[in-house]
Write a structure and sequence with these properties.
With 122 residues, the protein is an alpha+beta fold. It contains 2 helices and 5 strands; from the N terminus they run H-E-H-E-E-E-E. The protein has a 5-stranded antiparallel sheet. The model has no long low-confidence stretch (mean pLDDT 91). It comes from Algoriphagus locisalis. This is DUF2116 family Zn-ribbon domain-containing protein.
Length: 122
């Protein structure tokens, strides 16, 4: 009975040892899995970076010692704010919708103005 040779999924080297091994060593296993997950990991990293940047922009708008501030859409865009990225939405009983980037949120007002608020910690 001939034993079929198994090859490493990463480098195609002949695998020795257990019959259910897929990789020749830990380095090949890690390299293979990192390549498989690279696209989703990079996407998540870019989105998280944008969320943190949005949060820092909102934080910079509120004066020190205050809990809210006001700004324009133009200033937010000039600072690099990306409106499609936010962590959650909060709707008040009056129907106002706040978009949050972690603990800082904004409410769109009339005339391209925005109210920026610091969320209350639970």
């Amino acid at each position: 009975m001939a034993i079929e040779k198994k090859y490493c999924l990463n480098c195609n080297a002949v695998i020795q040892g257990r019959i259910d091994k897929k990789f020749c060593d830990d380095q090949c296993r890690n390299t293979y899995n990192n390549q498989q997950n690279a696209f989703s990991t990079n996407y998540i990293r870019r989105v998280n970076h944008s969320l943190k940047k949005n949060r820092n922009i909102l934080e910079s708008i509120i004066p020190t010692g205050e809990e809210m501030g006001k700004t324009t859409r133009d200033r937010l865009l000039r600072d690099g704010f990306i409106f499609k990225y936010f962590t959650h939405i909060y709707e008040t009983k009056k129907g106002n919708i706040y978009h949050y980037c972690y603990d800082y949120g904004y409410l769109e007002l009339e005339g391209d103005w925005f109210l920026v608020v610091k969320g209350k910690e639970v």
